[in-house]
Design a protein that fits this description.
The complex is a heterodimer. Chain A is about 60% helix and about 5% strand. By secondary structure, chain A is of the alpha/beta class. The radius of gyration of chain A is 27 Å and the shape is elongated. Classes of the chains: A alpha/beta, B mainly alpha. At the A-B interface, α3, α4, α5, α6 and α7 of A face α1, α2, α3 and α4 of B.
């Protein structure tokens, strides 16, 4: 692979050889063309320059390496190799671009990469694993902003991007792509900034409901689409105002779309923005006719869309209802009045330690509360001590636990929990009937039996853990006052076999460890 | 490249993405988001083109600076995204059974 790439680069340097290799390429290419859909004949770029097939091949290789990067994530063993493929792909894409364009100012570009790289690298090293959702949201906003900047640059200097037609106007199809690209990029940016502020606690996680928001949102979206269409057909002269309006409205709609969405729906939002950042890259790829960008955009776009779908399904909610927002606002207000005092049992760390030592099997259910309290290390220590006593310890993770897909898995991995002790909902749910102890730490809605029995409950239909089948339940919770994000009371609190361990999750785990 | 061949690549890549992402184990969904985030910064290609072009045309000078800012943003993402993915993946360990 490396050798062929070197050759590709060499051929770019030596035009005469590039032509012969291009011919050779064309001779055997038709056989593969149908399967790969790779336009092998050096098609004419919009600007009239022939596309060097070796350059196209290098971008294609970068795209394939990105596919392999995602493919590697199918198991933890192959995942690191996959990540290396991703880095290699990015290197190929960047080097190819620099090699094939006459560069006016290399030091400036190198400086820009160095500054960005240093910031990114240091952030990645320092960030706490519990803050991963914020970091991902922040990174999404950067991709969105970069897409907007590239779109604007292409609009200002279309010649450099090869999107001019014979008369010096921007091609119609490129205008549509540009309009959509900057729009999606801007939505990704402002949406991610709001998601970041909510996840980071700079902004309340509660949904902010504007009056008439659906009308406003649909109106703005319609305006963006209409303006993009107008931008495509109008003559270039005087389209500046239209273009800038599209950019401005798109920033606005990203903001409006995310503010009414509550904290519990953040996993869906983060995945959705992930998807948008992909579509933005794909739109820019269309403008540039760049295979690597298109493949990547499609991959990232479908990845985010699938993650959003998984999250929605795990909450039994439709994507539309999540986007419409406001979840948690109505439920919380109706619940406040209806609260009744019901008897519940309070347990101590010593009780928990004693019961779990006697148990044969313990299933631990972590939730967002564990992340907030940074209790994962103390929890793992507790699990280890129990295992030394011959207790079987398993971790059960709900798809929507935490603030982003897979959040709990990362935290447990950080605390050195072996990944083969961690199970997904459908794999472990049947085991609760045989379990002696269900240890719930910082989770709530995902263990609420109301989702199975109470048709009127806002979380009805959501798949939940059957914790009530376990012989004993320990529920670690800060106080009896708060309910989960859905704002629903939980029957499990008041069950005979439940003991409430009211304390900070980390402190409670440490106390149990001491008692063991 | 003409529009239809680009569109074909795009549609095929969507299908590839669909099947590849479903094969990702749920435990690795957070690294998946981090790595997709890193690779979507391939948008740096566009930023590099803008930055490299320099002031050939009227809007070239502005475009160049926008491109350079784009390069900085995308680089944060590339280095940050891959580094944080690497860091997360290094934590997924299988312990020796006792």
């Amino acid at each position: 692979m490396g050798a062929s790439f070197d050759r590709a680069l060499a051929s770019v340097r030596r035009p005469s050889r590039a032509i012969t290799s291009g011919r050779r390429f064309r001779k055997w290419a038709p056989a593969f063309a149908g399967a790969l859909l790779l336009p092998v004949t050096p098609a004419l770029a919009a600007s009239g320059e022939p596309v060097n097939p070796w350059v196209a091949a290098a971008y294609l290789i970068a795209g394939v390496l990105f596919i392999l990067a995602l493919r590697g994530l199918s198991s933890p063993e192959s995942s690191r190799r996959g990540n290396r493929f991703g880095m290699l792909g990015m290197l190929i894409a960047v080097v190819t671009t620099l090699w094939t364009h006459s560069i006016a100012s290399l030091p400036e570009i190198a400086g820009a990469i160095a500054i960005g790289g240093a910031i990114g690298f240091i952030t990645a090293r320092r960030i706490a694993m519990t803050d991963m959702p914020q970091l991902v949201a922040a990174f999404h906003s950067l991709v969105g902003m970069a897409a907007v900047l590239v779109g604007i640059a292409a609009y200002l200097n279309p010649g450099a991007f090869g999107i001019l037609d014979a008369t010096g106007e921007i091609l119609t199809v490129s205008r549509v792509e540009l309009g959509l690209g900057v729009a999606i990029g801007a939505i990704t940016f402002s949406g991610s900034v709001i998601a970041f502020l909510k996840l980071n606690g700079n902004m309340s996680g509660a949904p902010i409901m504007l009056p008439l928001r659906h009308v406003i949102n649909l109106g703005v979206l319609g305006a963006i689409i209409g303006l993009t269409a107008y931008f495509a057909i109008a003559p270039t002269v005087g389209t500046g105002a239209i273009f800038w309006t599209i950019v401005g409205l798109s920033f606005l709609i990203g903001f409006l779309l995310i503010i009414p969405i509550g904290g519990a729906d953040m996993p869906v939002v983060v995945s959705m923005l992930n998807s948008y950042s992909g579509w933005a890259a794909a739109a820019m790829g269309f403008t540039l006719g760049n295979t690597a960008m298109i493949i990547t955009g499609a991959l990232v776009g479908s990845s985010g869309a699938i993650l959003s779908y998984i999250m929605c399904k795990a909450m039994n909610r439709s994507f539309i209802s999540v986007i419409a927002g406001g979840f948690g606002a109505e439920a919380a207000s109706s619940d406040g009045a209806a609260k009744i005092d019901r008897p519940w049992k309070r347990g101590s760390a010593e009780d928990a330690a004693y019961m779990m030592k006697q148990a044969e099997s313990v299933i631990i259910i972590p939730g967002y509360g564990m992340a907030v309290a940074q209790a994962q290390h103390a929890l793992r220590e507790m699990g280890d001590m129990l295992k030394e006593q011959g207790v079987s310890v398993k971790y059960a993770i709900h798809p929507v636990a935490g603030r982003m897909p897979g959040h709990m898995n990362v935290l447990l991995a950080e605390a050195n929990v072996s990944y083969d002790e961690v199970f997904e909902l459908e794999d472990i749910n049947s085991e609760f009937a045989q379990a002696d102890v269900a240890f719930i730490i910082g989770a709530n809605d995902v263990v609420n039996p109301a989702a199975k029995t109470d048709k009127g409950s806002p979380i009805y239909g959501m798949p939940v853990f059957d914790v009530e089948k376990a012989k004993t339940i320990f529920f670690v919770k800060r106080s009896m006052g708060g309910v989960g994000y859905a704002g629903v009371d939980n029957e499990v609190f008041y069950m005979d076999q439940t003991m409430m361990l009211l304390s900070d999750a980390k402190k409670m785990c440490e106390e149990i460890v001491k008692a063991l | 490249m003409d529009f239809i061949s680009i569109l074909s690549i795009f549609v095929m890549a969507c299908f590839v993405g669909y099947y590849v992402v479903w094969s990702v184990t749920p435990a690795l969904h957070t690294p998946l988001m981090a790595v997709t985030n890193a690779i979507s910064s391939v948008i740096i290609v566009g930023a590099l083109i803008a930055a490299a072009a320099g002031s050939q045309a009227d809007g070239g000078q502005t475009a160049k600076w926008l491109g350079l800012v784009g390069v900085v943003l995308a680089s944060v993402n590339i280095f940050g995204g891959f580094a944080v993915t690497e860091r997360m993946l290094a934590m997924y360990k299988k312990k020796e059974r006792k």
